[in-house]
Amino acid sequence: MSSRHYVDRLFDPDPQKVLQGVIDMKNAVIGNNKQKANLIVLGAVPRLLYLLQQESSSTELKTECAVVLGSLAMGTENNVKSLLDCHIIPALLQGLLSPDLKFIEACLRCLRTVFTSPVTPEELLYTDATVIPHLMALLSRSRYTQEYICQIFSHCCKGPDHQTILFNHGAVQNIAHLLTSLSYKVRMQALKCFSVLAFENPQVSMTLVNVLVDGELLPQIFVKMLQRDKPIEMQLTSAKCLTYMCRAGAIRTDDNCIVLKTLPCLVRMCSKERLLEERVEGAETLAYLIEPDVELQRIASITDHLIAMLADYFKYPSSVSAITDIKRLDHDLKHAHELRQAAFKLYASLGANDEDIRKKIIETENMMDRIVTGLSESSVKVRLAAVRCLHSLSRSVQQLRTSFQDHAVWKPLMKVLQNAPDEILVVASSMLCNLLLEFSPSKEPILESGAVELLCGLTQSENPALRVNGIWALMNMAFQAEQKIKADILRSLSTEQLFRLLSDSDLNVLMKTLGLLRNLLSTRPHIDKIMSTHGKQIMQAVTLILEGEHNIEVKEQTLCILANIADGTTAKELIMTNDDILQKIKYYMGHSHVKLQLAAMFCISNLIWNEEEGSQERQDKLRDMGIVDILHKLSQSPDSNLCDKAKTALQQYLA
Amino acid sequence: MKTGEFLFLLFEDVPILISDIFYDWRRQTERRTGRELAAGPSERARGTPQLLPSAPCASSRSPAAPPHVRVRRVPERPWPGSRASAGLDYSRLDAELRLGFEEPYRGEVGRRQQKEVKWEEIRPHGGRRRWPVRGRRRRLGRAPQRRELRASAGERLAGPGEAPPRAQHRPPRAPPAPPGLAAGPCPAGGAPAPALAASSSAAAPFPHGDSALNEQEKELQRRLKRLYPAVDEQETPLPRSWSPKDKFSYIGLSQNNLRVHYKGHGKTPKDAASVRATHPIPAACGIYYFEVKIVSKGRDGYMGIGLSAQGVNMNRLPGWDKHSYGYHGDDGHSFCSSGTGQPYGPTFTTGDVIGCCVNLINNTCFYTKNGHSLGIAFTDLPPNLYPTVGLQTPGEVVDANFGQHPFVFDIEDYMREWRTKIQAQIDRFPIGDREGEWQTMIQKMVSSYLVHHGYCATAEAFARSTDQTVLEELASIKNRQRIQKLVLAGRMGEAIETTQQLYPSLLERNPNLLFTLKVRQFIEMVNGTDSEVRCLGGRSPKSQDSYPVSPRPFSSPSMSPSHGMNIHNLAPGKGSTAHYSGFESCSNGVISNKAHQSYCHSKHQSSNLNVPELNSINMSRSQQVNNFTSNDVDMETDHYSNGVGETSSNGFLNGSSKHDHEMEDCDTEMGLQLDAFSLLAYSDPWNSPVGNQLDPIQREPVCSALNSAILETHNLPKQPPLALAMGQATQCLGLMARSGIGSCAFATVEDYLH
After folding, report:
1. Is A354 near chain B, with CB under 8 Å?
2. What's the gap in Å between the CA of A261 and the closest CA on chain B?
3. Is A260 on the interface with B (CB under 8 A)?
4. Contact B753, B3 (CB under 8 A)
5. Which residue ranges contain the repeat ARM (chain A) (predicted)?
6. ipTM for the whole complex
7. Where are the domains of chain A?
8. What is the homologous superfamily of the domain A521-654 according to CATH?
9. Which residues contact B445 (CB under 8 A, 6 or more apart)?
10. Which of A43, A129, A54, A122 is CA-nearest to residue A86?
């Protein structure tokens, strides 16, 4: 029979014949994508939807229509798109109001298929506010409604808004008891629901911890689902639930169900025996779980040779698969990127805090080479993960000086920084901060490849994280740098930008900018040179900050800048001639905070230092201001450091 | 293994037949579980040690003397556990029991209830044999026997030498370990280990009394049983402590040989010292696990935890020598039979708990630290390794946990994974390449089973619906069925008569069988059920009908499976895999070689090869086996009887000679007869210590013996192939255990008999 014929029969005046036509159509389209496409082209969908919605249609006919539509949705993405174009979703949702269970199930099955397709916007589920409560009510109807509804929820719950909607309609209570359902599919879909509900959602997570099902707390049920004889899918999903609940703060990281159950389970998911998809998910979830906790990182690093196990993630596609099995090669290729980025992510989490773990990671065979290769991969995901991994590892002084240098990591990194999306830039620039540390051998080559302009560009970014990283890197760069570099920085940055940064809303940016200033103003010739050109502006800025409402650290940093200025030969005069500043220094010497007293003390010491030219006049002037009395007072200070400084300063007067 | 499931799948259309079969299987399983539940109370009931047989005491339950056949009463012994499993209708039961005064024959319900009683009544054999007829004393002698058995299984390592004072009460004829035993138990796969045999035989016979069985040991017992249900501890005891004999002199032991400390100089690696556990790890564990807690790392923390074979130098740390494997605390390296280690895991020190898990399925080993698995350390491990620790500097102290305490690592979860894996492997095992072959085979098995037990109508219907031919003629099946019905109804006289009519020369050629039948007849006379005394009792024909004509499926006369099971159930240390050990020729430890030749099918050839070995192994068991056998009177029909080993000198007779054959027979028959006669010594034989003979369930072995004998004359197999297959599977598992194939741990036959 031709496709045309099937469609024609839908228009038969005899309802019985229409029904038979739909049933025949159902049998014809099952598993036949070509037939499905033909029928869609011939306009079967609108007619089926019409029959489905028609009051006069029998329930049986309606049900069969829903079944055929579900079958069509099972086909290609294009099929789903065509169905969506015919507004299938409202029609099916309307069908859920029917009293007939069979029809409801058929509608739900079709909805499930449509919603699980990547082309369907999940928002369609939330447009009508009555839909969610109705679905919640349908949860009690049968195991099929349970399965399909849970599946719809778990696919359509994207982001905190959806989580909140579902949560407010009692999703937790309604779905919790499905975890003990006799049907594996229902249990599984319910579990998946919880994993999407709990993700980064403290409210849901906190609720889940205390939910009782058959006298058992939900975390205990999840732990049971982690048991090694359970299907892998179930183990993995319940490990995700527990991970998300833990990251949302609902379960402590030292809880046994995390340390002894979830973590080992996720490590197992990374093993060679698992499917590639499972290994990817396992590694990503584990990376997420251990990210903030060094103790979990330590445990994971010793569990089942995880670090060596991850090295296998880079062996796809294997050389064997290329020759022997095209299908396998295809499969491997598809997952190769995912595997690599998951491994990098997990390495990044593992090496985030512990030096020994970093060492172990870098000692893994060809690790640095792999990371360096990863930096220049086409996939953004892999590049990002590789940069994150490298960033974790760059926190180690030893590695910076050895492996990073050996593998010229800076080269691909600088490339990554060109025209990269923000998310990569954030990580890459913060890694650059580490590479620009004074003891890093990469500093020179990075400077030569035009890092200054790049970083100065970052400080103008909209993204505060990028601004911080940019200025931070500049600060590191300026530390004990040559005059030329400092001049370069000042020139590229421009004083206007510098002052803009000093009034930045982000405290971190302010701190690092002050740090940059301080680093720029070190060693006498540099101080004099810079102050001679920018002295006025800098003094203004310092006054501004000391007068402003800032916290202790900012003020301390500013006083330190003053102290540095006071160390210059000609720059001293900028302070000595500014009574306002001198008064401020005096004020901070008597401040209640020791740190500020100490910083002010540095200023004074530098100003009255004997061996320098004109010290006598400065000492006299300061004596007149009553500084000596304060020094005497401070020499009695309980803080030994302060006391010593005061005494040394007094000695300068005596000499 | 899949038979059960397949049957269900294939024959949904004949549910009755199948449920019949499964009813029988289930009953066997239930009986076992029922008994286990019952064991507790019955044990306690006879808690107080009994006195010497020669010194009769005034027992509270003084057995009234006058033998009076006619006094009948249905013994009322509640068995909560077994009742529940048997699913009895209590109201009906009570009614029948009340009726029981008038009606000598008890219907199905009554019978089954009594069946459970049997488990309580099983007791060692020897005592009675020694003092026949004097029933009153026999009963006294029994309890300690039983206790001893249980104890020797449960507390074999309780500590050699300290025989509890109670030991002197034991009947003199039962030295727990006959001298010949020591050479016996050697694991199949490995070289004989004299030290092991010596230590196990030394440890086993001197158990502590109940008082010394402290909480820890009980917990240890419980945990080991749960972790390693497939291990037969009679054959392959589990490690429970460090061996005071198998250690270097620099090692000191304390706290029940669980704590190890170093007492040498600790100057050089030459001062290293190790200690092994008392026993090697049995393969039937499947997965084995122990933990060691570092109490103190001492001076340098040079501690090694691992495994080593018997005979490896103890003046070394584990891992340095051939067949020695260790994980060292100072550097975290693993040592695989080599002086140089490989980077393996983290270091460990004071306060850490290090676990060592041996996977006997793929012969690998991994360690755990504080409950975290560290990954595979060794592969291709040899069999029969001992848990081992080594220390090297002063102050190092470690504590072992062989199951005394809960483990830090969740080993049961790991075991679950492997159980699932093995079972999936079994489920997915490819069967029959050609279409329908497998199904035909299954159908044949079912059909032959039905025919064997004489379910003739069912067999006929089944054969018709599955297009099969029944080998035996219908009339013949019906005849057998008739005789079986008679035996099971206790109408022995009629049964004998019918047999003689239908199979004239059968009983003449089989005097032993005839004797057994006669003894049973005598018992039934006491019972009041035999046809010749029918008038006395007024047998109810109705109740006869209610007896289901379903002899227990796997009982074969010579094999007496039920006492195979009894043994296992009464000796807590024994694994459950061997439950059906009775089914196959070589399974019973006390079978003589002649028995083998007489009916071993070609199928059994593989097992045949192992006969000498099996026999030698089983010799060690024979003591216990024999302790039970004569109690099961009716089972003694077999001419390769078990009932010989009650004196220690007889222990080795079993394995070898057929000369003793006749003597055995006489012996057995004597025992049978005496047991039966001793019924007369009680006014209330049902409540007497020998009263279990009256239990209708005791008819079953007689029945199947007779059935098998008849089938043999027709040149038909003595056992249905289904039972053979089951027995073979069970045996195969036992053989796997002995050959070091660990997967047997997760494939018990019972798992497939739902």
Report:
1. no
2. 9
3. yes
4. no
5. 43-79
6. 0.81
7. 521-654
8. Leucine-rich Repeat Variant (1.25.10.10)
9. B3, B720, B721, B722, B725
10. A43
